[in-house]
Design a protein that fits this description.
- The chain has 184 residues and is mainly alpha-helical.
- The chain has one domain.
- Helices cover 53% and strands 4% of the residues.
- Strand 1 (105-108) and strand 2 form a beta hairpin.
- It is globular and about 60 Å long.
- The protein starts with a helix and ends in a 28-residue tail after the last helix.
């Protein structure tokens, strides 16, 4: 199975949905951004074992550390100050905030307002994560994750395959084993 392909499909689905409808757009954008982050990490987890024998040591480390390990192996230093690699900073900050969210208080006119206390007078006040949750950022994340994957595959000498670089949800290597079907 190819987790990156499933995550990529979800990110694309929610991005397309966000671009087509106004109602629920915020939530579709949010989902697209998060699934783009999942796509990137799943891609790293797919590429890593192809180029590093010690990849199992990276199983529980942050995506930035996984990317560093891959780039180190490839003797490549990407420009993290410009797109597409720059996108990863905001992408994983947002993903981590959503995954590990905490209640926040937002400053407005010198007063602390919890999200429950906001009224229509304060509807333009947003937390940083809400500001990040935009169509522009969702599009950039979706596109930049693909560009990064293609860049790393090319540098690693990974051959192109169907729906390169993530594969398809139907692609993969399957092994069928005969199982004793007797009920005991």
């Amino acid at each position: 199975m190819r987790p990156a392909a499933y995550n990529r499909s979800a990110a694309g689905y929610f991005l397309e949905l966000a671009e087509k409808q106004q109602e629920g757009q915020f939530f579709s954008v949010e989902a697209s951004i998060v699934f783009s982050a999942f796509t990137h990490e799943a891609f790293l987890n797919s590429l890593g074992p192809k180029i590093r024998k010690d990849w199992q040591e990276f199983d529980r480390v942050r995506p930035a550390e996984k990317l560093y390990a891959i780039c180190e192996t490839l003797k490549y230093e990407p420009n993290k100050g410009a797109r597409p690699y720059q996108t990863l900073n905001g992408l994983f900050w947002f993903r981590n905030f959503i995954a590990h969210g905490r209640e926040e208080k937002v400053m407005a006119n010198g007063e602390l307002l919890s999200s429950r206390e906001r009224s229509e007078d304060f509807d333009t006040i947003e937390a940083d994560w809400e500001k990040y949750c935009s169509l522009v950022n969702a599009r950039n994340a979706y596109e930049d994750v693909r560009i990064i994957a293609e860049d790393l595959c090319e540098r690693a000498g990974v051959k192109r395959f169907v729906q390169f670089p993530f594969g398809t949800i139907a692609s993969g290597v399957y092994q069928v084993e005969k199982v004793d079907s007797q009920i005991k």
